[in-house]
Amino acid sequence: MMKRLLLGVLALVAIAVAALVVFVATFDAARYRDEIDRWAQAHLGRSLEVRGELQLALWPRLALEAQAVSLGNPPGFISPALAEIDRLALGVDPWALLSRRLEVDALTLEGVRLHLERRSDGRENWRFDRPTSVAAPSGAEAEPAPAAEPAGARAAALPLALGRVAVREAYVLWYGAEREQPFRLGPLALEAGPVASEAPVPLKVTLVLSKLSQMSLEGRLEQWQHAPRWVGRLEVPEFDLRAWLEAQGVALDLPSSLLRRVSLSSDMQADAAALHLDALELRVDEVALQGRLGADLRGDRVETALTGTAYGGTLRLEASLNDLAGSSHWQGEGGVKGVDVARLLTAVHGKSLLTGQGSVDFALRGRGLTAEEALRSAQGTLRAQVRDGAVLGVDVERLLRDASAVLRGERPTGGGRDRTPFEELSGSGVLAGGVLRNDDLFGRTALFTAEGAGRVDLIRSRLDYRLQVRLAATPEVQRDGPLAILLGLPIPLEVTGPLASPSYRVVTEELAKDFAKEAIRRRIAPTQEESQQEEAPPVVPAVKEIFRGLIGR
Q1: Measuring CA to CA, which residue among 220, 223, 222 is closest to residue 232?
Q2: What is the average pLDDT value for the chain, to the nearest integer?
Q3: Tens digits of residue pLDDT in 439-483
Q4: Which DSSP letter does residue 534 get?
Q5: How far is it, in rounded angstroms, from Cα 317 to Cα 305?
Q6: Does residue 31 carry a pLDDT above 80?
Q7: Which DSSP state fits 545?
Q8: Cα dihedral 485→488→492→493 (10° resolution)
Q9: Where are the alpha helices (H) located in 442-507, listed in sequence order?
Q10: 139 vs 327, residue with greater confidence
Q11: Strand 165-175 and strand 104-117: pairing?
């Protein structure tokens, strides 16, 4: 009895194997190509072509393999297809296949190119519209498409059970409206599975950034059949972002030292409606930030709140960006405190004409995503203060001594230290149309104070300021003859020209008028202190000598 049962089982196995061999041997690739394309047209509204080989393999396991697969685009897009796959392999359960069911225990895709495109009218090629009818072979009547169902219901109805999903050598190409070539992201790799029932799906994505750095996104895909949600961790080790962007054809109008050391880590949650980065840690060169970022993917809105350190000081920022697909507008407020001004300006502009510890508070809003658009549209207020620093490229004390020499009929000596140390430099301004207007500039040094107003044209990189300098009545100044004659006078100082190399000039014509008025006043109505001085030589020369010095006669 046992022997007969064993022989029966062996016979059934032999029949099953023979049937399987016959099925593989008689596999009609052309028939399945058409069925695959009809299925895609019915469910996706797109063509799904297998241009290469389509075959079954028995070893090392039963597998369906397709070469040169492409998923088409809807009309009106310039990219060649939504997706192109060099090789697609399905490892299948042979026993289920004999029952005319396809159960996949492994899915492998190699050489994937995903072409993502958003048109100027807002249409996106990755959004699938249900077709109104299914394409039929030539001469046959078109088959109506199935009734529309909610996306979640369709996904839930699919009898999907995957043991493992692997994607290798994948690239994402983004076709922007103003780019001559697509933005290329890759190579990417993906490992996922097992995929079964309602259980979360483990998933890991890696992206090669450089020879020494690889981004990783690791976590789980929850509720994937109804409302997929990603929960995981994003890690980007330090890499050269500038070199990576330049390799993508992105030109940066920034000093070559910027964006050389960038790293990122964050907890991440995402679904079809929103993206959240929590416990975010971002480093960009000498800036280290912590905080959060949230994006409303349906409403095209991004919000962030960050704090951190930057160039020896602290930084805080709250900002939002709205309508990313249309006329993008943004707003932000925050500030920096105690930063090394020279390090910051050198990093941003390549050089600095200012040193010291600086603080800035700002509240700005504007439109546009490019630097030029944002600068031209920006509006708001700024307040800045720098302490214990120096203005490089000018020696204001030497300018004052030269002006005094002109008033005394002498030749200016020039020279100087090419820097003006100060104790404080502060002011506030209003930004509009790329121009910062400032009416309360104040500076204080050990020798003088300066007050004035002006404007900085950030688009043309030029400034135009008018200051009044007043010497401090210290014992040192009072004993210094060339400077002492300027005591009590408002000394007009103009600062104009390019931001990178402005020119400084004492307006001696105006200074001479005030100087002459003061000299006349002292001769007509000397102060009590002056009248008590016996036979003291005059502090200022006669009016006639003043004008003689000005005209050189």
Answers
A1: 220
A2: 82
A3: 999 999 999 999 999 999 999 999 999 999 999 999 999 999 999
A4: S
A5: 6
A6: no
A7: H
A8: 80
A9: 475-479, 481-484
A10: 327
A11: parallel
